[in-house]
Specification:
With 170 residues, the chain is an alpha/beta fold. It has seven helices and five strands, in the order E-H-E-H-H-E-H-E-H-H-E-H. Helix 2 packs across helix 3 and helix 3 runs parallel beside helix 4.
Length: 170
């Protein structure tokens, strides 16, 4: 079975984009972020949700995910992308790293956020609810889990790079 992409999944604020860029550079591969692709094609995330709704966003997200997985390299998925059954099936052909983060750490990362799903008075409470709902899917799909809560992010990058290289050599 060819596992052509290294895919990063996990909740909002876990560092998938930051880690993904660094992992791709370290491995000499291209980086692709499904959320960035959707925004580039369709406009700001908050505008997409306000003008088109979450169903339109999810459809565009699925297209972006399929494109990223087909291209290979290091692919970062938006937090909810894994809820799509087609994406779940597609991920079986790739190496999947779950990035996790503790709520107390993510609080600073999502404070004052413009993330549409975290709107309202208590972004952290909403984040925790969304994570609890999605966590079983994340865990089911992941080949390996890396926590981004402690220490320099570079340690997580190094651990993922080491894992990816070990997987390639098997």
């Amino acid at each position: 079975m060819t596992r052509c992409a290294l895919v990063l999944i996990g909740p909002m604020g876990a560092g998938k984009t930051s880690v993904g860029r660094r992992v791709a550079k370290a491995l000499g591969r291209r980086f692709y972020d499904s959320d960035i692709a959707v925004v580039r094609e369709h406009g700001p995330m908050d505008t997409i949700f306000a003008e088109h709704g979450e169903p339109a966003f999810r459809a565009w997200e699925r297209e972006a995910v399929a494109t990223g997985l087909a291209r290979g390299g290091v692919v970062s998925l938006g937090g909810g992308a894994v809820l799509n059954p087609d994406t779940q099936r597609d991920l079986a052909r790739h190496r999947v790293a779950l990035l996790t983060v503790e709520p107390r750490v993510v609080a600073a990362r999502v404070a004052g956020t413009d993330r549409p799903l975290l709107g309202g008075d208590d972004a952290l409470a909403r984040w925790e609810q969304i994570f609890r709902e999605r966590e079983p899917v994340y865990r089911q799909l992941a080949d390996r889990t890396f926590d981004t809560s402690h220490g320099p992010l570079q340690h997580v990058v190094d651990a993922i790079v080491t894992w990816a290289r070990e997987e390639e050599n098997e």
